[in-house]
Write a structure and sequence with these properties.
alpha/beta; 5-stranded parallel beta sheet; single chain
Length: 304
C-alpha cells in the first residue's frame, strides 16, 4: 500500500483550481441491432460498424462503446436499467441509436422516457422507408424526442447508410466536438464529499498513470486520503444525485472495454497514455516522472 509520505508527496502537487478546461476522453455509445459474434467481422458490416469506421477515420482519438462490450465485461449484471441510463448519459459525449430491431426499439422507449438525461446527447437514426408510417414509434417516442429537440435522422438502414446527408451532417457535428476542450469541476459545490462522476473519471486515469500498477481498493483509498474524504458519493455535473449508487467498478470496466486501461488480475495499468490529463494535479512532464519514482520507491519501501 502507498505510504503516508507518498500521499503527502501527491498532496503537494494538488491543483488549487476549482475547474479546468482540458481535453478529456470522448465516449460515443453506439446502439442498434445485434450481430452474430461467431462470424468474423460481422460487426463491421452492421450500421453501427459502418458509422464507427467513419467516426474513427475522422476522430481517431474518440472511444466507441458498445453495450455488448459492457455486458461481456460484467458491468450490467449488477445494475438496473434506470441506473445504467443515468451512468451512460453522464459519461458519454454522444449516444447514437439505430432504431432497426425490436431490441433497439425498446432502447428508444427507455431513452426517450427520461428526457432530461438524453436530450443533448442522443441522436436517433431511423429507416427512411418508415418515415411517414402511422405507427406507435412515430407517434410515441419519436414525437416526444422531437419535442425535446433530439436530432432525428433518416437513412437507408438496409443498404447505403452513408448516402444519407442528414446522418453525415449530424455525425460530422459530433466529430467536430471531439477535438474541443471541456470544463470539468473538481467536485460539486454542495458538499465536500460529493464528486462529479465525469471529473472523477479523468482523475482516476490521472492517478493510475502516476501509481500503476494499482488495485481498485488502493485507488479508492489513495483518492480519499488525497481529498481528505472519509467517504464520497458520485453526483452528476449539475450536482444532482443518481437514483442508485454508482460504483468505481462501473468506470473501471468501461475504461478497460475501450482499452484505455488494461487489467492483470486485480491490478490496473494505463494502456493509452494519450487519455491522461492533469485535472487533480499540476505536473510538468519532468516533475511527473520524479513524483512517480518517489511514490513507487516509497511504496516498495525503498529510500527516495
Amino acid at each position: 500500500m502507498f505510504s503516508d509520505l507518498a500521499i503527502d508527496d501527491l498532496k503537494q502537487h494538488l491543483s488549487s483550481e476549482t475547474f479546468r478546461y482540458i481535453f478529456s476522453p470522448k465516449f460515443i455509445f453506439l446502439c442498434g441491432k445485434g450481430f452474430d459474434k461467431r462470424i468474423p467481422n460481422a460487426y463491421l458490416d452492421t450500421n453501427r460498424g459502418i458509422i464507427q469506421q467513419y467516426i474513427k477515420t475522422k476522430a481517431p482519438k474518440s472511444y466507441i462503446v458498445l453495450s455488448e462490450q459492457l455486458w461481456e465485461n460484467g458491468l450490467l449484471a449488477d445494475i438496473d436499467l434506470l441506473t445504467f441510463e443515468e451512468f451512460l448519459a453522464e459519461v458519454s459525449d454522444c449516444i447514437i441509436l439505430f432504431v432497426e430491431s425490436m431490441g433497439s426499439a425498446c432502447e428508444l422507449g427507455a431513452f426517450t422516457f427520461e428526457e432530461k438525461l438524453f436530450m443533448e446527447k442522443l441522436i436517433l437514426v431511423l429507416n427512411e422507408k418508415y418515415k411517414d408510417d402511422d405507427s406507435f414509434i412515430n407517434h410515441g417516442p419519436i414525437a416526444k424526442a422531437k419535442k425535446n429537440n433530439t436530432p432525428i435522422v433518416y437513412a437507408d438502414l438496409d443498404g447505403a447508410l452513408l448516402s444519407s446527408r442528414e446522418l453525415l451532417s449530424e455525425t460530422n457535428r459530433i466529430i467536430g466536438q471531439m477535438s474541443e476542450k471541456c470544463k470539468l469541476n473538481k467536485r460539486s459545490v454542495n458538499k465536500a464529499n460529493e464528486v462529479n462522476l465525469s471529473s472523477f473519471l479523468v482523475e482516476i486515469i490521472e492517478l493510475i498513470r502516476l501509481l500503476q500498477p494499482i488495485t481498485s481498493d488502493e485507488l479508492v483509498t489513495v483518492y480519499k486520503k488525497i481529498k481528505s474524504f472519509s467517504s464520497f458519493d458520485f453526483v452528476k455535473k449539475n450536482g444532482q444525485p443518481f437514483n442508485s449508487k454508482i460504483h468505481l467498478n462501473y468506470l473501471l470496466k468501461l475504461l478497460t472495454s475501450v482499452s484505455i486501461l488494461k487489467q492483470d488480475k486485480e491490478q490496473y495499468f494505463l494502456s493509452d497514455s494519450n487519455s491522461a490529463n492533469n485535472l487533480m494535479f499540476s505536473f510538468s512532464s519532468s516533475t511527473l516522472s520524479r513524483a512517480r519514482n518517489r511514490i513507487l520507491s516509497r511504496k516498495y519501501k525503498y529510500k527516495g
